[in-house]
Structures are given as structure tokens and as C-alpha cells.
Design a protein that fits this description.
Layout (H helix, E strand, L loop, with lengths): L3 E13 L4 E13 L3 E6 L5 H8 L7 E6 L2 E2 L5 H11 E4 L11 H11 L5 H10 L15 H13 L5 E5 L7 H18 L2 E5 L3 H6 L2 E6 L2 E2 L1
Parallel strand pairs: 3-8, 3-9, 6-7, 7-8
Antiparallel strand pairs: 1-2, 1-4, 4-5, 9-10
Bound molecules: adenosine-5'-triphosphate and magnesium ion.
The site of magnesium ion (MG) has 3 residues, from α1.
Length: about 220
Amino acid sequence: MNQIVLEANQVHKSFQLENSQIDVLKNISLSVNSGEFVAIMGKSGSGKSTLLSLLAGLDQPTTGHINLNGEDITDFSEEELALKRQSDIGFVFQSFHLIPTLSVRENIEFPLSIARQNNPDRVDELLAAVELTHRSNSFPHQLSGGEKQRTAIARALVAKPKILFADEPTGNLDEKNADQVMQLLLNLQQAFNTALVIVTHDPGLAELANCTIHIVDGQLQ
Ligand SMILES: Nc1ncnc2c1ncn2[C@@H]1O[C@H](COP(=O)(O)OP(=O)(O)OP(=O)(O)O)[C@@H](O)[C@H]1O
Ligand SMILES: [Mg+2]
């Protein structure tokens, strides 16, 4: 089924510096279908993280429109964006962003608890999917990098998002853990039919994608 879950239409992003303005993204249009795996590649500073932030509703474009799961989020308030992120989006960062005072289980539960939901079975399912059931009571500082990222992936998927964004999710991992985390992301994409948008420097990974987007100097090639 080729339902579009994400569409960017002529997106432009500028940042105001002290005496000048930089145009970081220029005229970006793209679409992602449900369950599709899209890789984003490009040099450092080309605008990949900025693009991901806009697509995921973490920041707003200067001009242009972003449609997420059938809703134009461009003019959403902060509150509306937060709700949209809760219901439709998962995000995985290079540096994990776990909450240090919460256990693995509590970190995974966190998106449900802020949405005032309680679903221990779903948390168990994700713990098992990322093979961390035996570490559910551990705290982030007790985990390896790979285990931290697997926790972050489980947290990103617990609320059944339509689309998962990951910004260099294996950038802080050694090769073995990187391979395991990538395999896990691909397995979960299949199992939950979640669209996957990943920023990566790994050409091998990009080869596995349904589509690879190359950004050069803020523009799609
Ligand atoms: N809030 C901001 N204010 C000013 N400039 C910014 C801001 N965020 C990003 N930039 C600039 O936008 C450009 C693109 O940054 P971005 O983080 O998107 O690059 P990237 O492709 O993700 O790079 P990397 O591979 O190093 O992570 C850079 O020149 C950066 O300095
Ligand atoms: Mg980046």
C-alpha cells in the first residue's frame, strides 16, 4: 500500500546570524510512503539534521509546507506539534538522549506516560523486540552504547508511530553494535510497518534503503 505518510513541499530554512542570514535548506520537496525506508546522505554541514528536525516537527521551516500523516503541520503551535510528535513520530538521536534517572523500562514507558497511557504489555513487547528484557531495571549509565541505543529505539517505537526518524543512530557505536542496531531498525520497520527516515554516512546501509536522498549544500541532488 503506497499511502504517503510524509510530504515536504518547497521547504526552505534560514537561520539569522548576528550580521547575516544563512540559507541552510533550499527548495526541498520529497515524500515518504508508509513502511518505506529512506536514507539521507550528505557531507557534514549540508543540512541533514536541520532537514530531519523540520520533517519531524521539532522545528519549523522558514517557508514551504510539511504534511505529516495527512495534516499540514507548518502552522501548528508548539502544543499541537508536541501532540503530533507524541502520536505519529519516533525520533532516535546519535547520542541516545535517555533520561539518566529512569530505568530502561521507565525510559521506554516515558512517551506513554506523558500521553497518560498505561500499556505494560506494549512495553514488554518492545523490551523483547530490542532484546533488553533482562536489563529492564538497569539505568542508562549501566548500559553499553548499543544497549542505550536499543533502549532509545524501543522508546521511539512504543507509541506505534507512523514514521521513525533517526539521525546517525549508529554514529556513536563500534562496528559490531552499529550493525546490530541497524539490523534491529530494519527488522522493526518490517515488523511494525513503520516508515524509516535515517541520516547515515554508511553507503552499505543506504544500499538497503528503498530510496536515498543526497543533500548537497542544502539542496536535493
Ligand atoms: N540553529 C542554528 N543556527 C545557525 N546555524 C545553524 C543552526 N542549525 C544549523 N545551522 C547551520 O546549518 C548548516 C547545516 O547544519 P546541519 O546540522 O543540518 O548539518 P548536517 O548535515 O547534519 O551535518 P553533520 O553531518 O555534521 O551532522 C550548518 O552550516 C550549521 O552550522
Ligand atoms: Mg547532523
